[in-house]
Amino acid sequence: MEEILLASASPRRAELLRRMGVPFSVRPAQVEEEVSGEPEACVRALARRKAEDVAARAGRGRVLAADTLVFLDGKALGKPRDGQEAAQMLAALSGRAHEVLTGMCLLDAETGARWERCDRAVIHFGDLTKEEIEEYVATGEPMDKAGAYGIQGLGGALVRRIEGDYYATVGLSLYGLRALLREAGLR
Question: What is the DSSP string of 44-78?
């Protein structure tokens, strides 16, 4: 398989590509991550913008971009600005269900051919005490994660149940990636 350009600096996405045996090099996108609109449209648009940014700078090759967002009551919860915002997000998620969506875009920089998809999961949080939230925020883990938690890390202990694609919550659906690569003629 030809090497793809990963439009992300996420160590989680890089690890998942390695697990799949996909050769890649990292080329982080440089785009604003402001969103509005319906959840699926948001993550697809962000992934597309990231892929287009890297493709324009690279000029050739196939670019894979992804974006993962947490949605509570249809509102996107991005990465918290500080510990206080992280605590507010976690308190809002406590005892409730929310959606996590990952949009992916594979773009051929030379031809402009594009393959996209969105994968999702519904996450059910347990009831969290103020002390539990403060302890988790103090670890620093919530600060670079959409929705202020990482299911693959310490944040997994906050999750009571998951419905859907676990890897979509981590940042790159393995099932979805396999489908995109197949559609693009890559094995």
Answer: HHHHHHHHHHHHHHH-SSEEEEEEEEEEETTEEE-
